[in-house]
Amino acid sequence: MPRFRCPLVLPAVAALAVLAAALPLAAQAQNVILDAPALFPKKQKQGLPEVRVTAAPWPRLDPGAVFCRSEADLARLAANRSGSGGGGAVDCRVINSPLPIEIVERRGPGRTEVQVKGQPGTVGWTDAWLPEKAPPQ
Fold first, then answer.
1. What are phi and psi of 92, to 5 degrees?
2. Over the stretch 37-74, which tens digit does the pLDDT of each residue have?
3. Which of 101, 103, 113, 102 is nearest to 73 (CA)?
4. Which end of the chain is more exposed for a tag (fewer CB within 10 A), N or C?
5. 83 confidence band (pLDDT: 50, 70, 90)
6. Which CA distances in Å does 96 have to 66, 67, 71, 108, 117?
């Protein structure tokens, strides 16, 4: 019996074999492209933003502390507060926001000569209690 040979069968089978081999490669190429990190935006972190806290300067004068120009002004302020007379006018101010200082001299717990940091020549006296080490925060 003679065999029937179609001249188009062999090229068609070869083309199908090439397509079958190329399909997995095409799928892999698509996966690589779709998995590219540049195509997908990064997810934002949920919750509140991170806040960095800076340590408060030490030593410092806290709000409510007094800053007098001289030790005599500080003494007059103390006399005026106690009502013992002999006070008079004082050149003092009340601190409204934390003020970084350097301690120049201590004369007991209630009299300290200080200099304002960053302002050379701004020296004064305070009756604020200023311990050697910063209080725990």
1. -130, 160
2. 666 677 777 888 888 888 788 999 999 999 999 999 99
3. 113
4. N
5. confident
6. 10, 11, 21, 24, 16
